[in-house]
Amino acid sequence: MSEAKNVAGAIAERSRQFEQAYGDADPKALVEAYFAGDDHKPLASPPGGAQPVRGREALTAMFAGLFADMPKIELETIEITASETVASEFGRAILTDVLGARHFGRYCVCWVFTEEGWRAKSDVFAADGWRE
After folding, report:
1. How far apart are CA 112 and CA 40, in angstroms?
2. Considering Cα of 44, then 55, then 18, then 87, what sign does the dihedral take?
3. Which of 15, 108, 118, 132 is most buried by its number of CB atoms within 10 A?
């Protein structure tokens, strides 16, 4: 349970794994490293106002569809609030499109502590005009 005590560090590590798998255009690795198992019914809302998707299979398909237009993502944590088994994270996402333009958004993740460590149960993204 030591990972549960270092919530910010564990979440930062998951975020780096997310960024790496996203940049590698590997949706399966992204979902496996980042999201809780299907027993937790993981959920994400994709950019662009599309309907949220639930479950690892649907999440894998969702991310596979994002890589062509936005091949890079950077996540910046603003705040984490945590207990022993549940945490919430608020942050900023910076997506880079195929032409190199940067697009800004915000995200909120509900994390759960599982047998595999901290994993995202729900991830909500919203595009906005937030700038550097």
Report:
1. 9
2. positive
3. 118
Surface-to-core class of residue 47, CB atoms within 10 Å of its CB (0-12 exposed, 13-18 middle, 19+ buried)? middle
Please tell me the pTM assigned to this model. Answer: 0.90
* HEC string for 58-119: HHHHHHHHHCCCCCEEEEEEEEEEECCCEEEEEEEEEEECCCCCEEEEEEEEEEEEECCEEE
Residues 6+ apart with CB under 8 A from 12: 77
Residue type, 41: K
pLDDT tens digits, one per residue of 22-79:
999 999 999 999 999 999 999 999 877 789 999 999 999 999 998 988 999 999 999 9
Q: From the CA atom positions of the chain, what is the Rg in Å? A: 14
